[in-house]
Amino acid sequence: MKTVLNEQSRRNFVAQVESMLHDKLSKCYQCGKCSAGCPVNFEMDYTPNQIIKMTELGMEDTVLNSKTIWLCVSCNTCSTRCPKGFEVTGIMDVLREIAERKGITSKTEKEVQMFHEVFLENVKSHGRIFELELVGKYKLKTKHLFRDMFLAPKMLEKGKLKMHGETISNLNQIAKIFKDFE
Amino acid sequence: MSRIGVFVCWCGSNIASTVDVEKVREEAAKIPGVVSAVDYKYMCSDPGQNSLRNVIKEKNLTGVVLAACSPHMHENTFRKAAVKEGLNPYFVEIANIREQVSWVHEDKERATAKAVDLMKMMVEKVKRDKPIEDVRVPLNKKALVIGGGISGIQAALDIANGGVEVILVEKEPSIGGRMIQLDETFPTLDCSSCIMTPKMVEANQHPNIKLYTYSEIEDVSGYIGNFKVKIKKKARSVVEKDCTGCGECWNACPMHKNVKSEFNLNLSERTAIYVPFPQAVPLVPVLDRSVCLHFKKGGKCQKCFDACGPKCIDFSMQDEIIEETVGAIVAATGYDLMETSMYGEYGYGKYKDVVSGLQFERLLSASGPTEGVIKRPSDGKTPQTIVFVQCVGSRDPEKGVPYCSKVCCMYTAKHAKLFAHKVHGSQSYVFYIDIRSTSKGYEEFVRGTMEQDGAVYLRGRVSKIYEDNGKLIVKGADTLSGNQVEIAADMVVLATGVIPKKGSDKLAQMLGISYDKYGFLTESHPKLRPAESSTAGIYLAGMAQGPRDIPESVVSGSAAASKILGLFSKSEYEVEGTISSVNEATCVACFYCQRVCAYNAITRKEIKDRSGNVVKVVASVNPGLCTGCGACVNACFSKSIDVKGFMDDQIYAEIKSLAV
C-alpha cells in the first residue's frame, strides 16, 4: 500500500487521537510485545503495533477501516505488558470512537460494531449492564432473533439474566465520563 | 650432557580429557637426557611454577620443556620462573598440546601420540638451545603525533603533560579536525567549539608541544626509539611569527567569489588568503596559490601585502623540509565522509537541498555560512519539513561499505532535535534501519528526539528522491506497518558513512603499519592491544582506526599517550633476542635478504681493516626493526642467516626426532 504523507492532516489526526488517549504515540518503540501476546491477533488484519505506527503516520482511512480495532476484545494484556506503559487498549477504544463519529461502518465486522454500540448505550443509560435489554436490542439490530436462544433457559436458571435491570445511584457520574470523552 | 626436565600439564580437563598425560610423561622419561618428567594439573598455578623451580634447582636442569598450552599464553610465566632459578629464559621450550592437540582432536590415542611427538621435538630443540640475550634499543624521548583532530590533540596534550616533547603535525591550516566543524555534540548538546577550542589553544601554547600546521609527513624511516621523520612544511606565504591574525589581508583580497570554503564543505566562499574559521589555531592565514591573483597574473595583485601592517606576507616563501628524530609515533589521521555519487537515486549534487550530515552541521553552526540559522542552500528559505536518511553508504555492501558508521544514528537524532529547537512547528522524518545508541545517555537522547521533539521515525530505506514543484519528494518504506511512504520535504539530509581519511593508506605504507581492506589502520590485537599498531613504537588513535564517537576518540588518544609515556619511562627498550643474525664469514653480500625483509631491518655493513680500507661488505641486522620472522633465512643462498633460537641444527634435530 502506498501512503502519501500529508503533514497537516497527519498532525491533525495525531493530535485528535492523542488528546482522546491522554498518551503520546511517539512513546511506542515498536517492540511488538503487544502483538506477541494478543489473543485475537490471529484474526486481525493489522497487528496492534502496526495500528499504532500507522496512526502516527496519519494513515487515518486504513486504521479506521481496519478489522483490528473491532476485533480487539479489550482484555488489556497488551497494556499490562507494554514496556513503555503505552495505552494500547486505549488506542483501540479511541479509534473505534472516531470511526463511530465519522459514521464509518465496518465492512467485515458489522455485528461487532453493532454490539459495541448497544453495549455502550446500555452502560450509558444504566451505569451497568442490563443483560436482557442488551440481548434484545442486539438481536433487533442484527435481526438474528433466534440465534443462541437455547442458552436462555440455562442463563435464567443460573440467574445470569435478570428480568429487571438495575440502575446505579450516581448515573450523573457515568454521564460525566461519556461527556469527558467527547 | 643435557639435563632436561619435562613438565606435562593437564590444564584441568582441557588437555587431560583428550590426551593421556601420564603416557606423555612416561614417554618423556625414556628420552636420553631427560632427567625428570612430571605431570601436574595446572602448571601455570603457583604450586605448578614452584614445582618447576624446585626441579630445576634439585636436578640442576639445563633445559625445560613444558607440554602445555600455546606459548602465547604462558611462555612468559615459565620463562620468568626459570630465570629465578638462574636459567637463561630461552632454555624454556613449549610443546603446545592444548590448542594444537587436545582442542582440535577427538581420538585420544592418536592425540596422545601427537602430543608425545611434539614433546619429543621440543626436547631435541632444547638440547641445542644456546643462551640468548635480549636486545636493548636506546630511546629518543620525543613523540610525533600525526593529525590535529580531537584524538591527536588529546594524545599530544597527555604526552606533553607527562613531561615529554611532542611534535604535532596537521595537514590543514588549523588544528581542530572534524570536531571543530560540528555544531553541538550528542548527547549533552554542549557546543563543539566551546569544548574544543580550549584544547586547541592549550596544544598551541604548551611548552612541550611543537605545532606544525599546513604540514605533511614526507618520509619516515627507522624503528622504535629512533624514527627519522621528514616533515614538509608547505609554503604558507605568511610569516607565522610576525602575523597578528588581524584580518586586514583577507579583507583586502579581491578573490572573494568562486572559491568554495573547504571548511564549510562548499556551502560558502572564501578568499585566496584565508583562515578556515574564526577560531583557527594558529590564527595565521594561508595563501592559496592555486587561486591567488598574484600567482595567476604574474605578480600584479598584492593587495594583501599592501594591507598587512607587520608586512608578514612573503610571496617567495618555499616549502620547507624539517627533519626530526622521535622515539614513538601516534597516527591519528581521522576520517572523511563517503561520496554519495553512487546513489544517483538520492540526487546528492543534483539537488542543492540534499545535503550531507556534515554540511547540515555547518548550517547549524554559529560560525557556519548561515550563522546558525537553518536556511536551505537553494533559495535561503527556512525549511519546515526535513527528511533525514540514515545509513547512506554504510551497511550497504553493494554500493557502499558493509560496516556501520556508528555515529550517524546519534548525529541524526541530534540534527532532528536541533532542527525542532531552532525552527518551531517544524517536522522531521527519519528513515532508519536500526537505531544504534549504545553509550551512556544515548538511548534516552534518541527517545527524547522522538517523544519530546516530535521527530517521526520510519523503519526503512529510502528508494528515491526527486524534485517536484519546489519540494523534494522522498519515496521510502515503513517496514513496521508494511507501507510505501511518500513525503514532500523542503530539505533532505543524508547521513553519509565514514571512511578513512584520503591518503591515510599512503601514510600507513610510509610508517610500515597495516590497514584493513577499507583503509582503517589495524590494531596489533583488536581487543587486548587496541592502541598499538602492528609495528613497535607506532600507536593509533581516533577515527583512523574505524568509526567512533568523540568520547571514544578522546579515550584512544589518551591510551596511545599512556602507552608512549610507559615506553619512555624506561631508559632503553627491550626487544626479544630471537632475531636474525648474520654469519659474516660466509655472507656473500647478495642482499637478497634485504629485498625480502618486510621491516627494512637489513642494512649494509662494511668491514674494514686496521688502516680503514673496506675489505668486505656484509648484510647486517638492525635489532630494533627485526621481528625474527625468518623470511631472510629462507632467502639466503649461502645459508649465512639464522634466527636465534631457531637455528638450522635445532630444526633438523626436531624433524629427526619424528623419524625415529
Short structural description:
With 182 residues, chain A is an all-alpha fold. Chain A has helices at residues 7-21, 33-37, 48-56, 60-64, 68-71, 77-81, 88-101, 110-126, 131-142, 151-157, 171-181, and one strand spanning 2-5. Chain A folds into two domains: 7-101, no CATH class; 110-181, no CATH class.
CATH architecture of the largest domain in chain B: 3-Layer(bba) Sandwich
Q: What's the CATH H-level superfamily name of the largest domain in chain B?
A: FAD/NAD(P)-binding domain
Q: Using only CA atoms, what is the Rg of chain B? A: 32 Å
Q: How many distinct beta strands of chain B?
A: 32
Q: Estimate the mean pLDDT confidence of chain B.
A: 94
What spatial order of strands do you see in the largest sheet of chain B? 10-7-6-16-27
pLDDT below 50 for ≥5 consecutive residues: which ranges of chain B? none
**How would you name the oligomeric state of the polypeptide chains in this document?**
heterodimer
- Largest inter-chain contact set: A-B, 20 and 20 residues
Task: Give the fraction of residues assigned to helices of chain B.
Answer: 25-40%
What is the typical, i.e. mean, pLDDT of chain A?
93
List the domain count of chain B as a whole number. Answer: 5
In terms of DSSP E residues, the strand content of chain A is under 5%
What Rg of chain A, in angstroms, do the CA atoms define?
18 Å
Q: How many discrete structural domains of chain A?
A: 2
Summing up helix and strand content along with how strands pair, one would put the structural category of chain B as alpha/beta
Task: Count every beta strand of chain A, where a strand is a DSSP E run of 2 or more residues.
Answer: 1
- In the CATH hierarchy, the third-tier topology of the largest domain in chain B is known as FAD/NAD(P)-binding domain
Name the overall outline of chain B.
globular
Q: Termini of chain A, distance in Å? A: 32 Å
